[in-house]
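Hi U.,

Before I forget, here's the chain from the pilot set. I'm dumping it here mostly so it's searchable later in email.
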Amino acid sequence: MIRYSLKCENDHSFDSWFQSAEAFEKLLGADMVTCAVCGAYNVEKAIMAPQVRMVHKKDTKPGALSAPASPAEQALIEMRKKIEDNSEDVGTNFAAEARAIHSGDAPERSIYGEAKIQDAKSLIDDGISVTPLPWGNKGKAN
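Structure:
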């Protein structure tokens, strides 16, 4: 696994993990790497500082693995919970449901779900506002 610091055309910086450098290049070439903040497709590697591991003192205990690793991770957990509590999960029917809401064929409401990258691009091209969510499909937030 390799972690890259990335930057989009709108100057948003974010980190992402990839299986390998080759996997990153392949995904980037297929427009499958998008900005975690705004969803922009024009993403490039940013300057990275080497990671230095700190030696922990023997008397300090690491946090529980189930606990958030940082305030940012805690904020992401809280955001996910709020979205899931206040929106309808339409699963893999996201693109069709978003179109139906946009055209007035379905009641207006907040939804979330899954869409293929081409379907998401098509929604955006048609003026339908969608936003990628910064988490995978790993069950509901706690």
